[in-house]
């Protein structure tokens, strides 16, 4: 049997994405409570993520959203990792609110423990990507924009990790892009 690397990439990228998602899932969680959500986006749906990210750039005026909207079009897959809000009952005040009961009254403030769990899951995911020698980058921008879609709706914070199997890392040495000109 002869396996051509270029012809087998699409199959491998799905396997790699599954390994990365597993690493994020098995990352330690505060009090053992799992509030992490993880999905992988491939194919035409990456274009949809790009369009939503671009639209969010127009809405907010944040220019890095335009750059990242274009940048993810070079990804073979985009892994989205988010966290739902679940107060831990620690009354630690780390979120800026005195108690978890008080925090429940203001659901716009994320639980600090949930955010730490999200960070650890992202770290595990990109470490696995590095171990597998797959190019990746953590993007707040795409996760921020994806909240406008009807996916991961229970998550208050989402980050994107585009991954690529190519001869040059498309997520490194990126130049800022200006807003696209209308024709």
Task: Walk me through what this model shows.
- The chain is of the alpha+beta class and about 180 residues long.
- The protein has a single domain, classed as NADH Oxidase.
- Helix content is about 45%, strand content about 15%.
- The chain is built from six helices and four strands, in the order H-E-H-H-E-H-H-E-H-E.
- It has helices at about 5-25, 45-60, 65-70, 100-105, 110-130, 140-145, and strands at about 35-40, 75-85, 135, 155-165.
- A four-stranded antiparallel sheet has the order 1-2-4-3, with helices on both faces.
- Helix 1 runs antiparallel to helix 5 and helix 2 crosses helix 6 (about 140-145).
- The termini are far apart.
Which terms would index this structure?
183 residues, 4 strands, single chain, alpha+beta, 4-stranded antiparallel beta sheet, NADH Oxidase
Kindly summarize this structure in a few lines:
With 183 residues, the protein is an alpha+beta fold. It has helices at 5-25, 44-60, 63-71, 100-104, 112-131, 140-146, and strands at residues 36-41, 77-84, 135-136, 155-164.
CATH class identity: Alpha Beta
Note poorly predicted spans.
none
Structural class per helix/strand content? alpha+beta
Q: What is the fourth-level CATH superfamily?
A: NADH Oxidase
The CATH architecture can be named as 3-Layer(aba) Sandwich
State the separation between the terminal residues, measured CA to CA. Answer: 50 Å
Q: How many distinct domains?
A: 1
The portion of residues forming beta strands comes to 5-15%
Main sheet characteristics = 4 strands, antiparallel
Shape: globular
Question: What is the average per-residue confidence, as pLDDT, rounded to a whole number?
Answer: 91
Q: What's the alpha carbon Rg, rounded to whole Å? A: 18 Å
SSE topology string: HEHHEHHEHE
What CATH calls the topology is NADH Oxidase
Query: Order of strands side by side in the largest beta sheet?
Result: 1-2-4-3
């Amino acid at each position: 049997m002869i396996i051509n690397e270029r012809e087998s990439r699409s199959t491998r990228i799905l396997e790699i994405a599954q390994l990365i998602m597993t690493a994020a899932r098995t990352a330690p969680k505060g009090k053992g409570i799992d509030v992490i959500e993880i999905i992988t986006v491939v194919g035409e749906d990456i274009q949809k993520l790009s369009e939503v990210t671009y639209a969010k750039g127009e809405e907010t005026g944040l220019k890095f959203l335009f750059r990242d909207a274009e940048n993810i079009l070079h990804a073979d897959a985009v892994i989205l990792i988010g966290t739902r809000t679940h107060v831990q009952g620690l009354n630690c005040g780390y979120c800026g609110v005195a108690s978890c009961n008080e925090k429940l009254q203001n659901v716009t403030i994320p639980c600090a423990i949930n955010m730490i769990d999200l960070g650890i899951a992202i770290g595990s995911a990109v470490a696995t990507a590095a171990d597998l020698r797959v190019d990746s980058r953590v993007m707040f921008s795409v996760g921020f924009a994806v909240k406008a879609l009807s996916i991961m709706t229970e998550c208050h914070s989402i980050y994107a990790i585009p991954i690529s199997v190519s001869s040059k890392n498309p997520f490194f040495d990126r130049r800022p892009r200006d807003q696209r000109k209308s024709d």
